[in-house]
Amino acid sequence: xxxRPQSTPxxxxxxxxxxxxxxxxxxxxxxxxxxxxxxxEWRRINAEVCVPQGPALLxxxxxxxxxxxxxGQAEGEYRGVHPFLDTDVYKWLEAAAWQAADTDxxxxxxxxxxxxxxxxxxxxxxxxxxxVVKGGERYRDLxxxxxxxxxxxxxxxxxxxxxxxxxxxxxxxxxxxxxxxDSTFGPGNAVDGVCGHPEVETALVxxxxxxxxxxxxxxxxxxVDRRGYGLLAAxxxxxxxxxxxxxxxxxxxxxxxxxxxxxxxxLYLLAGVADVAAEADDxxxxxAAERLWAEMVARKTYVTGGLGAHHDEEDFGDxxxxxxxxxxxxxxxAVASVQWSWRMALMTGQAKYSDLVERTLYNAVLAGVxxxxxxxxxxxxxxxxxxxxxxxxxxxxxxVAWFRCACCPPNVMRLLASLPHYFASADDCGxxxxxxxxxxxxxxxxxxxxxxxxxxxxxxxxxxxxxxxxCPAKATPWTLSLRIPFWCNGFRLVIxxxxxxxxxxxxWLRLRRAWRPGDALELxxxxxxxxxxxxxxxxxxxxxxxxxxxxxxxxxxxxxxPGGGLDDLLFDPAPGLTEKHDPTLLGGxxxxxxxxxxxxxxxxxxxxxxxxGAASWWPYRSLGRVIRxxxxxxxxxxAAEQFELxxxxxxxxxxxxxxxMRVWLPTS
Amino acid sequence: xxxRPQSTPxxxxxxxxxxxxxxxxxxxxxxxxxxxxxxxEWRRINAEVCVPQGPALLxxxxxxxxxxxxxGQAEGEYRGVHPFLDTDVYKWLEAAAWQAADTDxxxxxxxxxxxxxxxxxxxxxxxxxxxVVKGGERYRDLxxxxxxxxxxxxxxxxxxxxxxxxxxxxxxxxxxxxxxxDSTFGPGNAVDGVCGHPEVETALVxxxxxxxxxxxxxxxxxxVDRRGYGLLAAxxxxxxxxxxxxxxxxxxxxxxxxxxxxxxxxLYLLAGVADVAAEADDxxxxxAAERLWAEMVARKTYVTGGLGAHHDEEDFGDxxxxxxxxxxxxxxxAVASVQWSWRMALMTGQAKYSDLVERTLYNAVLAGVxxxxxxxxxxxxxxxxxxxxxxxxxxxxxxVAWFRCACCPPNVMRLLASLPHYFASADDCGxxxxxxxxxxxxxxxxxxxxxxxxxxxxxxxxxxxxxxxxCPAKATPWTLSLRIPFWCNGFRLVIxxxxxxxxxxxxWLRLRRAWRPGDALELxxxxxxxxxxxxxxxxxxxxxxxxxxxxxxxxxxxxxxPGGGLDDLLFDPAPGLTEKHDPTLLGGxxxxxxxxxxxxxxxxxxxxxxxxGAASWWPYRSLGRVIRxxxxxxxxxxAAEQFELxxxxxxxxxxxxxxxMRVWLPTS
Lengths: 668, 668
Known about the structure:
The structure is a homodimer of 668-residue chains. In chain A, strands 3, 14, 15, 16, 17, 18, 19, 21, 22 and 23 form a 10-stranded antiparallel sheet that branches. A 7-stranded antiparallel sheet of chain A has the order 2-6-7-8-13-10-11. In chain A, strand 7 and strand 8 form a beta hairpin. With 668 residues, chain A is α+β, with helices and mostly antiparallel strands. Chain A has helices spanning 37-61, 63-71, 86-99, 109-119, 128-133, 142-145, 147-165, 169-182, 200-211, 214-225, 237-242, 263-279, 283-300, 331-348, 351-365, 408-417, 623-635; strands at residues 27-28, 33-34, 383-384, 424-427, 430-433, 439-445, 448-456, 463-470, 478-483, 491-495, 498-499, 508-513, 520-525, 530-534, 544-549, 552-557, 569-572, 578-582, 589-598, 620-622, 642-649, 661-662, 664-666. The first copy, chain A, has 3 domains: 36-422, Alpha/alpha barrel (Glycosyltransferase); 424-525, Immunoglobulin-like (Sandwich), CATH 2.60.40; 530-603 and 636-666, no CATH class. Chain A is globular, with a radius of gyration of 26 Å. Strand 14 of chain A pairs antiparallel with strand 20 of chain B.
């Protein structure tokens, strides 16, 4: 094993580290820390609960046993039926590796690395399923085999440990696997193929960045460009029914006009596309990534930032097809969306990408983990009806300790463990704050070191206090850029006690001056609650509003509305919303209260035949009858039908008792 | 082979023939014929196109080859991957058998029966998949094996041929299989189990009716009552994910409060439940059937009568979860719904069951077959968006000649071939017309023979002319009952030239008098177009109306609206609808025209930051912004934005070119 180097390269502590040659408008910064507040608490839960629980869960689920079988260290049956079970271990290792930058490394880390080393075959190949179950067969079932997908997660874990602690042994294992792949795939090699589940593309670009070896970038570009040519043609009924989009083989990505197929596969691929575009300076690929991001957001994104409408094939779904009760919105898709959007933010410098990162983090990602860090959701619907029958299995809406297909929990763990990486960036002119959290955010450049300290109770309070902590000694002007979220209806800026007028450009408030250490700013974003309506083509939420406050999307839950279900709820927007922060509720949340009423019994009068198109047993009625009934109802609304409506942040739902929930509230 | 008996028992020519002891309010009549009009034309297409095409399609798909393998008459690989491929042959045979009552039997019928006889094992067992692929293994995989399901369809085909032509040889084959099952399953026998796919239950009751053998009724009751006790417990991941409702093993049917799981399985089971309830005089089962029908219709039925909301597991879905673009609405579920509702109509005498039969026949069933009878739909969505990407496989929305899983086409064939059976009934007091078609409908009772002739251009024209054709010679009063559809806003009745006042009771116009041959009635049902709205809990269609006329649900199709898509369509209910019958369009349909407009470009003004919660790239906006934009838009509507909207009957959609379609039209 490599010995720990004397100086930890903490300036590179993040999953994404473009080379100096990359066409990126912004660079990630390496000296960021989150030390408190909302995200500080979530990172504490991740460090103290989520990540420490991992090894025992991986042991119980059989993942480690399977690697021991591959290493010849155990006997018995392979456990589980998926060829990608090794990745749960790799993603947990990546999380533990990022965590190790802040605290002592998890005690199980060394043993796991030794096990992986022992399981690896002499030429670098490593996949417990194929080694144990398939008798060493390799790369024969690229559509379903996930071998390169597994390699990608191994590479990312190796890079994380190297960047976070300087330890090189896991990176060396990963690199041996990468070299084996590089000698097998691509022009002049034995196999012309791509993996059914993208992931290795982005990992290979990062391996290029970490090692300087250009073969990895070339291989990543090859894997990006060989999709859409039928290399993954279906060979069985199951695959044929899923179709080529399921495995991202339906169209060359340079020609694609819309995101399609399995959402997580599409998103991981597009993270790789952005990486290749930046490092290979490929404007066509960059244009494809920009085009597909815009299409996805405009037509296939839930208000929570969630992605993927279909349970069936885990598919994106059609444009504007965003059903609430059957929203798939896999937690992994939210994590992947953050990863892709962050790459786009750095490549382009545009604030909208970090706007989506913010929305996705606070809503779609966080909803995937319970407030205590012990239970998970795989799918994240926006509506649960009264009397919902909770299905068994991974795809229910009741939080569970682990999944049969446990991709999501370690994905959230690795994201939270590396979270500061996504909050700030730098360029030659200065520092950009993309997200707001209590902590210290800084970097070094040719001009010197920049850093700011931030104190904030965001997202509960819009006040963000920023103090310049470190900057070049001589009074050279530099720019501190603050992202003004697109949803923000107004903000107030005070610099050194002076109210200051400033106008954001394209989402950035660019403050250029000769900042000096100790200079203080206060930015206050208006968090006035908002009511959102959807593009009218989103049929599923016609006549409904969603409540938002700051970056948070809200929902109503049955447990806060005793005495009846939510299916008959009508929200009245006119009286507005009041807010109250309750530090004892759900770990401390700002609750919003509004006015609503329940529809009275919708019983029809049962007349049939010769009537006006209604029958008591039939749930559809004539428009005229409904208009007349509504007039009667409006005339006779009793005070008793009115009730107070309580909304909580969506991420905190399903943490009390089973029951109905909805994000979108009908208004009539 | 049995020789053809001299007199064809045409008085029993229908799939359902309760015994004299059955607790049924009404009896099916055996002497019905449809001779013209709407359904006459559909039955002609079925007889001349659909059914004759069957043998070649079954040959091409391998179903006959597989039976030859089982019979030792062919060599080679088994074709297809489903254990229920024999049923495509059986359902086609059932269709051909009912057809044989009207015309000469299909020439391939004898050869197919011989093949089935040769494939049957000496003890009566018959299933080509298990005999050929599984080495003769039997009843070991009841959850997925479909062996009893296949037996059920064989029994129904045998009964059909016997009732329709008097030929007994297929019935004898079926009975040998039934006896083998009866000696294997149930108390005192080797196997305590039920089939994962219900169907044999209703078939066994009918076999009891046809043969008088009470063992078949007992066995059917056993199969009904052993569900819900874990006999089909999942043994693998796939089955565990589907859960017990998928195969109707989640709850004893007597205790069930809602329809659940795989829609077709649930519906076939409930047809059997109704049969057992009637023949075994089991009030508890009857109450369960009534309760589940009411629940299904009130909460899980599309306006077309379609059933089954989920592609995933072909599941009914949750209450009020009725997405339009992903409606599964399998054609087989519509056929099964007609079968179950007809059993309920006969058992209870209540008109509402035939109301649903009518709606389902004209919309959900007919949509499954193309106007020329040559192509089919497996799933029947109520919406296709602009730019829909047509997926490959059985579950697309482009009509195809056959499916890999070809359950639906022969199901429609057997229903159309036996259609007159569902149109009239009798009791001791007289005759009931449940559906209106040109033809002759009659029966015999202890009092004598009754029959009426009907001439109508229904559903295009509401006028139904009825002439008494045959009735007891002496002037005994008897009752002619006419169903007044629940949607009907008004009707006019003329008897022997005299306008006559009459009030329907529970959907029936009961006309009791001493009818004599030649007596003439004219019933005119108002077919004024109607606008339907849904129960407000059906979130998917909030703010929308559906156009209906008579029993037909209408839709708008892209091909009738050149110049743009339907996603931006807004329907204006105020001006009303005009109608025009076009004999040249889509085989002759009444087209409805209304007023609509397209929403203008929904582009936002792109302001971001410090704005009011909108960004050009984000599809959700603040309510205030939308209200202001609407005020501007309302003030400036140009005439050019208005356009004429053309609606066609839903059943006729997807018969021209690919394009968008919608049943539910937004009004604001």
